[in-house]
């Protein structure tokens, strides 16, 4: 199913960075964001048509805000679309996404370069 989803994704998303072998990624997090979207698609959270429309809307919004549209920000738009879609579908909330993003930022700040980032309870401030 994964290969079929990748083929469908690359066909439905003409701006997806790719080469003759499929999608290409500059950073590991880009591949992880791609894989998360594939997994949610596989689970039926959305169709590729729905995903493509939401991603196009996110890119247009970014361009209206000054995004240079050089291709270097494509997966930032992908991730923003993913976050918005899971919140809209009720998988999580925007507040929970922000809480985890902030925790990852704290964990990354204390992690030496080249070491794996590990979340710890102290990365999450108490809910107020």
TrEMBL record:
Stretches for region Disordered: 108-128
Domain Nitrile hydratase beta subunit-like N-terminal residue range list: 20-103
Entry-linked InterPro entries: CN_hydtase_beta-like_N, CN_hydtase_beta_C, Elect_transpt_acc-like_dom_sf, Nitrile_Hydratase_acc_put
Stored SUPFAM superfamilies: Electron transport accessory proteins (SSF50090)
Listed Pfam families: NHase_beta_N
Membrane-spanning residues: none
Name of the protein in its database record: Nitrile hydratase accessory protein
């Amino acid at each position: 199913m994964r290969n079929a989803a990748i083929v469908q994704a690359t066909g439905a998303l003409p701006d997806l960075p790719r080469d003759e072998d499929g999608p290409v990624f500059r950073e590991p997090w880009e591949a992880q964001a791609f894989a998360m979207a594939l997994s949610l698609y596989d689970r039926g959270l959305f169709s590729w048509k729905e995903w493509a429309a939401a991603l196009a809307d996110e890119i247009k919004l970014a361009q209206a805000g000054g995004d240079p549209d050089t291709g270097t920000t494509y997966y930032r738009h992908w991730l923003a679309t993913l976050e918005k879609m899971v919140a809209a579908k009720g998988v999580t909330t925007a507040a929970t996404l922000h809480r985890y993003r902030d925790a990852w930022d704290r964990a990354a700040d204390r992690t030496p370069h080249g070491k794996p980032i590990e979340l710890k309870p102290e990365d999450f401030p108490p809910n107020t």
